[in-house]
Design a protein that fits this description.
Helices cover 58% and strands 0% of the residues. By secondary structure, it is an all-alpha fold.
Length: 99
Amino acid sequence: MIPPLSLPAPAPEFLGQTQAVLMQKAKELETAFLSEMLSFSGLGTVSTEFGGGVGEDQFASFLRQEQARLMVERGGIGLARTIFESLVSQSGGGKNETA
């Protein structure tokens, strides 16, 4: 197994309510980013000889999205943590955690 490139994001039970929402949004953004990068790298491109046809083309994006989600769940590339820290600093440090 390949070790993650960054530390996994903190678990939601260790964060306040506001920070948990911000972390979830940061993970969603990293997932979308990785999904697009996997797409541009050619992952899921149909081979011409024994490809799955139109159906494979239509469902390849779902596979890339799930692969990206799993990458983020296992630590990702650290983008979610960076985005989270930026969101927390812009929101005043997440002080309103129980609202």
